[in-house]
UniProtKB/TrEMBL annotation:
<dbReference type="GO" id="GO:0016491">
    <property type="term" value="F:oxidoreductase activity"/>
</dbReference>
<dbReference type="InterPro" id="IPR009051">
    <property type="entry name" value="Helical_ferredxn"/>
</dbReference>
<dbReference type="GO" id="GO:0051539">
    <property type="term" value="F:4 iron, 4 sulfur cluster binding"/>
</dbReference>
<comment type="similarity">
    <text>Belongs to the HdrC family.</text>
</comment>
<dbReference type="InterPro" id="IPR017896">
    <property type="entry name" value="4Fe4S_Fe-S-bd"/>
</dbReference>
<keyword id="KW-0411">Iron-sulfur</keyword>
<dbReference type="Pfam" id="PF13183">
    <property type="entry name" value="Fer4_8"/>
</dbReference>
<feature type="domain" description="4Fe-4S ferredoxin-type">
    <location>
        <begin position="21"/>
        <end position="53"/>
    </location>
</feature>
<dbReference type="InterPro" id="IPR051460">
    <property type="entry name" value="HdrC_iron-sulfur_subunit"/>
</dbReference>
<dbReference type="InterPro" id="IPR017900">
    <property type="entry name" value="4Fe4S_Fe_S_CS"/>
</dbReference>
<keyword id="KW-0479">Metal-binding</keyword>
<keyword id="KW-0408">Iron</keyword>
<keyword id="KW-0004">4Fe-4S</keyword>
<dbReference type="GO" id="GO:0046872">
    <property type="term" value="F:metal ion binding"/>
</dbReference>
<protein>
    <recommendedName>
        <fullName>4Fe-4S ferredoxin-type domain-containing protein</fullName>
    </recommendedName>
</protein>
<dbReference type="GO" id="GO:0005886">
    <property type="term" value="C:plasma membrane"/>
</dbReference>
<keyword id="KW-0560">Oxidoreductase</keyword>
Length: 198
């Protein structure tokens, strides 16, 4: 299938966001009153310099440099902002679109490696999981984490819980589904674009 790009650099950023396929039909971006409720409930804003209200302000001001703000990569899509916004805006959704623009324009390749690792893990085990490349870092941050990970099956058995790993048959089914939508190729592309940027 071929896609035709109709990108127009002169277009207002807010229009570009509203027209994006990821934007909900009733996205209230243009109704934002800058009340700051989204920022007050945002966990990412609590612990980092990320500020969803400010991000929306920049979009409404047509400040395209917002696409290059590193802070927007701190959002982890919990949708809390989405659920509290009184005018039906969704900073979470807007964030996803801004990141997609950044990726399309090759501006934030350095953030893609972790995403590729999550994709690879999904392909490997058939469900979401922490990529192996993060194990040692987690072990440093959380005492006993690696021991827990290594002994998880026996711990679960003692608790009368089944194995967490899916059967090979189920993993193969998920893999086939993912391959049918070219998920594996997209993960490879993500990894490749990251290498180019190093
Ligand atoms: S997006 Fe919603 S919650 Fe956030 S500042 Fe705008 S109106 Fe307020
Ligand atoms: S989805 Fe992102 S912007 Fe919204 S509350 Fe969660 S971390 Fe914050």
């Amino acid at each position: 299938m071929k896609f035709i790009s109709v990108d127009n650099d002169e277009e207002e950023l807010s229009c570009k966001v509203m027209k994006n396929i990821k934007a909900s039909k009733d996205l209230g971006l243009l109704r934002c009153v800058q009340c700051g409720m989204c920022t007050s409930v945002c966990p990412a804003a609590k612990f980092t310099d990320y500020n969803p209200r400010y991000m929306i302000e920049k979009v409404l001001e047509n400040d395209k440099s917002v696409v290059e703000y590193e802070e927007i990569w701190n959002c982890f899509y919990c949708y809390t902002c989405h659920s509290v916004c009184g005018v039906g805006n969704s900073p979470c959704e807007v964030n996803q679109i801004l990141r997609q623009i950044a990726v399309d324009e090759g501006k934030e390749d350095k953030f893609l490696k972790p995403l590729a690792s999550y994709g690879e893990t999904f392909l490997d085990i058939g469900i979401g999981g922490i990529p192996k490349s993060f194990f040692m870092e987690l072990h440093k941050d959380i005492e006993g984490w690696l021991d827990l990970k290594e002994n998880l099956d026996s711990i679960r058995e003692k608790l009368d819980l089944g194995p967490i790993k899916m059967s090979e048959k189920s993993i193969d089914e998920v893999k086939n589904l993912l391959k049918n939508i070219d998920f594996d190729k997209r993960v490879k592309k993500l990894k490749k674009s990251h290498k180019k940027s190093q």
